[in-house]
């Protein structure tokens, strides 16, 4: 029951965020009313405040994804872009409603920075890259992570994103394309 109640609470927050995309917080009373449970039920067994709910969403949304990322082995899994396309895009797609809401509303204004922080660390440890243009390794990891996050955001924020199997090749091509190639003079 506790897991189901937490899911009700998360679903309620996502619904509220979609109805009010400019709001960056909601009261526990609003969330409880939307979930059809008492505010006390939220406080007693689940969350102390709105920030706890956001933290839980971060954990729930990213834990499985991060676990799969941590299993990445270049000698077995090939290049990191194809690995992401093959193994991570399907996981993102499974959680598309929550992830899309985090991208398209203000319910979690720190969402992208949260992602950048976690996945830049992974890039630093797992991706080989060239240091050019007076950028250090942290700068390059930031650029790589930000680009990947952007390509995912453009896809997953759509009302009906295409399945990951269909987006896979687009994602890989976007990742391999120079910024100059996007611009037509």
Automatic annotation (TrEMBL):
InterPro entries: Homeodomain-like_sf, HTH-type_Tx_Regulator, TetR_C_Firmicutes. Residues 87-175 form the Transcriptional regulator TetR C-terminal Firmicutes type domain. It holds the Pfam family TetR_C_8. It comes from the Bacteria. Gene3D superfamilies: Tetracycline Repressor, domain 2. SUPFAM superfamilies: Homeodomain-like. This is Transcriptional regulator TetR C-terminal Firmicutes type domain-containing protein.
